[in-house]
Amino acid sequence: MALTFPDYLSLDYTEGRDQTAAAYPTLEDKLEKAAMVTKTALEQYERPAIMWTGGKDSTVVLYVVREVAADMGIEVPPVVFIDHFEHFDETEQFVYDWADRWNLDLIVARNEDFAGRGMAPGDEIPVADLSEHTQKELARLGYEKDTLVLDADTFEGNHLLKTVALNDVIEEYGFDGIFSGVRWDEQDARADETFFSPRHESEKYPPHDRVHSILQFAEADIWGAFWNYIVPDSVPDFPVGHVPESTADLPEGVEPADLPVSPKYFEGYRSLGTESGSAKTDDRPAWVQDLAASKERAGRAQDKEDLMGRLRDLGYM
Q1: What residues are paired with 196 via a beta bridge?
Q2: For every residue of 139-187, which 3-state class applies, written as one string?
Q3: Maximum pairwise Cα distance, the chain
Q4: In angstroms, rounded to a whole number, what is the distance separating the alpha carbons of residues 246 and 100?
Q5: What does the pLDDT profile of the chain (317 residues) look like in tens digits?
Q6: CB of 260 closer than 8 Å to CB of 99
Q7: What pTM value is reported for the model?
Q8: C-beta of residue 141 within 8 angstroms of C-beta of residue 155
Q9: Distances in Å between the alpha carbon of 43 and those of 211, 243, 301?
């Protein structure tokens, strides 16, 4: 008899528990661990996928997967981009451009109940006009109002536009392992995550695992990976370790669009969410700023600690 998920896996779901980034003191240590986790995942999961937002963390995850897959002589798994209808235009363009340059199998996940309605963030819609599936998801949240405001930065909007879209695509494609760019240092709600994190409660979401290959990275390490590995490997003759202080500080003949770095980071954003819910923390590029002086998600409206636990319990990244 064929085994069913997760019976065919042999994983230590406690790996990483009670650890901190201090266990991986150098960038090379962090990348080596990311590669080990990635190799294990690619060996064990039958239908893995990579969550890619176009942001810095998920791009590091994607880079490591691409490198390990090349070493193993296998194809890069499909890449899932969640369209919550409130991305910066530059974010969407970046994802589509680099998916093409890297020859990725890009899957765009969206809650189709809201697609094509011609709605804008902040518009109000009668709950009765929503599909039975969406109404059931609202009922799970205990939502009792007659109308819903379309906003990915609210608790309900985040669930419907992001989590439901992700759960639906997991079910549609049968994905069993989802690579995600979660880090221990981002938020208290993520500080206890493990490298392989089970999501097996079928009454909540399609059973699958989350693969957290960069838990051990801090924000500065992420940018170190970009300027020492990702950018030099993607841009011919880009000097390894060159950290541009502005767009004017790029090597001769290199434009920002040539880099696998979202242009919003050059503008001073340190974390990319919705267009209305994200804010610049400085006018300098993200990696030039004093990263220890403030939290990178300070400008993200949705990322309030009192909501994160509830969202994650519903399947949020």
Answers
A1: 211
A2: HHCCCCCCEEECCCCCHHHHHHHHHHHHHHHHHHHCCCEEECCCCCCCC
A3: 62
A4: 26
A5: 578 999 999 999 999 998 999 999 999 999 999 999 999 999 999 999 999 999 999 999 999 999 999 999 999 999 999 999 999 999 999 999 999 999 999 999 999 898 877 777 788 999 999 999 999 999 999 999 999 998 998 999 999 999 999 999 999 999 999 999 999 988 666 778 999 999 999 988 999 999 999 999 999 999 999 999 999 999 999 999 999 999 999 999 999 999 999 999 999 999 998 888 888 889 999 999 999 877 776 555 545 545 655 655 665 65
A6: no
A7: 0.93
A8: yes
A9: 13, 35, 38
| Structure-token match 């939502």, residue found | 143
Rounded Cα distance, 113 and 72, in Å: 39
CA 257, CA 75: separation in Å to the nearest integer?
A: 26
Helices and strands in the chain: count of H runs, count of E runs: 10, 8
Which tokens is 23 given? 């266990």
Give the position of tokens 């266990």.
Answer: 23
CB 206 within 8 A of CB 3: no
Residue with tokens 């003759």: 237
Residues, the chain, total?
317
Amino acid residing at 36 = M
Q: Parallel, antiparallel, or unpaired: how do β-strands 177-179 and 79-82 relate? A: unpaired
Q: CA–CA separation, 101 vs 60, rounded Å?
A: 16
Q: Quote helix, strand, coil % in the chain, to nearest 5.
A: 40, 10, 50
Cα–Cα distance, 224 to 222 (Å, whole number): 5
Bridge-based pairing state of the strands 196-199 and 177-179: unpaired
Q: Which residue stretches of 45-88 are H helix?
A: 56-72
